[in-house]
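note to self: the first set is below, dont mix up w the second
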Amino acid sequence: MEQKLWTKEFIVTSFVNFLLTIMYFLLMVTMSNYAVETYHVSVSTAGLAASIFVLGSLIGRLLVGKFIAKFGILHVLVSGLLGSVLVSICYFFANGIEMLLLIRMLHGFTVGLVTTSTGTICVQITPPSRKGEGISYYGLSAVLGSAIGPFIGMLLTSLNNGFEWMFALNILASVVCILIFKFVRIQLPESETSVVSEKTKAFRISDYIDKQAVPISLLMLTIGFSFSSVTSYLTLYGKETGLIEVAGYFFFIHSMCVICSRPFTGKVIDARGANIVVYPCMLLFATGMFVYSQSTAPWMIILAAACMGLGFGNFNSAAQTIALKNADPSRLALATATYFMFLDLGFGLGPYILGHIIEGLGYRSLYMIISCIGLICIPIYYLIYGNKEKRAFASS
């Protein structure tokens, strides 16, 4: 008998992740534009206003294992959401770029606590035999959020007081999530708490990072670093190319392609391994970036969005499955945090560093370079994991 996946806990956790992702992308794709219009800063500084959120999230993920061990996962969840409400209120009072950067970093910290906790719950409650499928479906909640968030954000930027509406919606979403999680009653296994608490007596890097998850997480860092150039500069690139209207639909198209493919790819990963999914996805990602770099017409933006949706979207879930595959059950929270810490680091460093490249070379040259990086990642994946899985299937 097939183990049940769609439990009440799985549905509620996925819905909360959906709301948080809407708010993340709503602000991420508009924040650089907000910084330029409101504080008249450079492109690289505007990118930092977007990406410093992710660096704050990275710090939150680094510490979340300790917090969960000490206070329990639901307490960390609710505390993170309460912190998100308080920090989001501060957006209304940011009177300079320095204050905005501080608010963004603190906001990222609170969201890092929450999303790592919800991700850990998902992994804990998903049946082992359906792990790839479960992670793929859970990831779809983020995909839907990434489709709706940018669309709402770019719509609101055309309205008077649009950014104030964004900040208010962020507060509302956090409050709704707090209320929703009053209905969830899940704790991490006792083994998770004991392992972490025993190691809090002395500093060890293994308290914060699961070494088994590091290789694939480093590759995800590179891909996330590359894709951050799209999430942070979509609005500005759309304005420069005269394709701002179709750019508003980029993440919708991107997400629809992921939604249509992920249920299938998740089952394929469970049945036949990750390689059969990863190689085509990485090639599609590189192709999408190349088309995006050459975009001169709406159909090219649409094609690029579809390629990157199929590529980045499915590689993300496949890489997460690989990161968790060999993790000890007592370290699933740590493996989850490790994966997302590296992903956050890529998304956090990307917009600021790539913003300097944009100032020197322009958008099109940057996206050409990133397309080449995507191709280089294919043999890197083979070396760190692909060849191992190939040998494992050959010997079975």
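second set (the one i keep forgetting abt)
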Amino acid sequence: MPFSTLKLCPQILQALAEAGYTQPTSIQEKVIPLVLERKDIMARAQTGSGKSASFVLPMLELWSANKGEGKAKIKALVLTPTRELTVQVAEAFVTFGKFLHVKPKVVSVIGGEKIGEQLYDIQQGCDIVVATSGRLLDIMSKKQIDLSRVEFFVLDEADKMLDLGFEQELGSILEALPAKRQNLLFSATYPEKMQAIASKITKNAVDVSIEAEAPTVELIKQRAIEVNKENRAPLLRQLLRENKWELVLVFMANKRAADNIAVKFRKHGFLAESFHGDLLQEDRSWTLKSFKERKIRVLFATDIASRGLDIDDVSCVINFDLPRATEDYIHRIGRTGRAGKEGLAISFIDHEDKAHFALIQKRCGMKLETEQIKGFELEGVAPQKEKGSAPIKGKRKSKKDKLREAQKEGASS
């Protein structure tokens, strides 16, 4: 099915063609017609499936058909969990709306950049605001933004927002929106808590899921290499030299590890950089741009990069450190093999990682044969777990019991 069958105007189709898009993904094929029919949506789809375009395209279509005269007023609010995803969604609105007779004014509202410039852009008039919730609430507290005319409210990567404590912030944002609006919720996973959040936003949403397709983990070639932790960096250097990978995304456990290893790999002649939340916004933007343009070939990242980053042609994802959660494993490897392209994901496994990786495999419904690379074979044995002290018999004191005792002691003293 080509995009031309989805009732999008010629100007949007022209922008799609220029960007090299001819066929909609499954989520786009299902969601775009529903949005054009003004339905509320609750959509679940894999990372890298094209969720963002599935709301950007029909929103542009509806906005352009009803563009009013005079100073622009905010008609669409899109919330995302990260600064990077915010910028990318805003860029998508600009890219796909570039040939419209009247182009939408799009403002990104994110932390890490001067709030004054964002306030100025809003006050000059804008049609679409793409924001992280924290910075949006900062601007709302200054009473410098009017959301009373919003017609489209979007949560992108909604499940990730739950991890960031978004639930408490949502109430304040919803109070500022008109009751009559179109709600579009997009998520890679769908925990119970997500359902509770969704019920506060919409009561009549159409559920859309493309889980019938093969899950991400089945579309990407995966390898598990057993290696001692101290040999991971030398092994990675060998793999990079032996293979013709264009772009490699390496996931690290923390920011310090990402910075340190990037420095070491540059000394070995690799075009390497680190990417994490402590970088200034301009540094993050430069790093991502350089990676996309292949000026950087190896990007050492923390899990901030595992959600929503729109980086095409990542040849290989390396789990230098395993993620804590199965969902993060899926999101990490979903950075490769995007939009039907072949991808490769490699996980380094030490003795201490074996039980955790077995759990990840079980929850993903897969079973990988581990391998070893000559010269980097896994040595030693798994450390024995120390037995803890014997459990205390009887009922443990609850927090309430302890609080009552403390209050009694305070009263008697």
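remember for set 2: Residues 3-209 form a domain with the Rossmann fold fold (CATH 3.40.50.300).
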